[in-house]
Every structure is written in C-alpha cells, then in structure tokens.
Amino acid sequence: MALSKTSMLVIGGLIGAAAVVLVLSAPQEGMLDYIYVDTVVDSPSEYTGRDIQIHGLVVTDSLEQDEKTGNYHFGVELKGRRLAVVFDGQLPDTFAEGGEVVATGRLDDDGRVFRSSEMSAKCPSKYEEEPGAPPKERS
After folding, report:
1. What is the full DSSP assignment across the chain?
2. Which tens digit of pLDDT belongs to each residue from 105-135?
3. pTM, entire model
4. Which of 24, 25, 81, 96 allows an S-S link to 38, with CB 3.0 to 4.6 Å?
5. Which of 108, 6, 7 is nearest to 49 (CA)?
6. Alpha carbon of residue 128 to chain centroid
C-alpha cells in the first residue's frame, strides 16, 4: 500500500518536529565549559560549584606530591594569571612542567584551588623545531 504525497510530507514533518523537540529538550549532561585559566582567575564566582575544564600551562617547579594522599599539587597559568590545582589521579605520560594541560574538575568555593580527577596533557614541545632553526630538508 503506497502512501500519498501529502501523507509522506506530514509524516516527514512530524519526524522533523520530534527531532527538534528532542534536541532542544535534551539536558546538557556531559557538556562541560572549556575555559582558559586567565578567565577563571578573573571571574571565579562564575565558575564555582560546577564542573568545568580549564586550559593552561603548568607552572615550572610547582609540582609536588602529597605523601599522605598521593594527590599532586601544581600551578597552572596563562597570561600572567595563576591557579592552584590539586589532582587526584595518575599524571599523563605527556605531563611536563611548562607544558599545556586541560584539567576537568571544580573550583573550590573560595575560587583559589581547582580540584581535578581527570586531565590530559599536550605532547612536550621537544618534538617541535626550535625557533630560528633552519628548516629540515626533506628526502
């Protein structure tokens, strides 16, 4: 039994409307704000009490490990703004002081410490050419 052209348009319209309703009413679960450290430091009250991702550079000589808890403490900075981070997981293999990190977690109520249990780090810059170095010839 074949459907008329009008019936097919009505069914297509209903399916399209249902898809729009589902997309607009879906909770934003799993969606985290991705924010640079300088922005968080400048407006901590906007980010306290919710899960976010922060992006910045690990402050050189700031990495310490708490002997009792095993947590890592270090600073992350960007554009002259610094934020203390407490990380309770295993550091990524590519983690390096001075390197870029993206950490997922929450800002303490006072806005001074970011507590994280998930982090990724970009590959160290040792794989990039040094500035001013002559380009390598290709074979």
Report:
1. -PPPHHHHHHHHHHHHHHHHHHHHHS--TT--EEEEHHHHHH-GGGTBTSEEEEEEEEPTT--EE-TTT--EEEEEEETTEEEEEEE-SPPPTT--TTSEEEEEEEE-TTSSEEEEEEEEEPPPGGGSPPTTPPPPPP-
2. 999 999 999 999 999 998 765 545 555 555 5
3. 0.69
4. 81
5. 108
6. 23
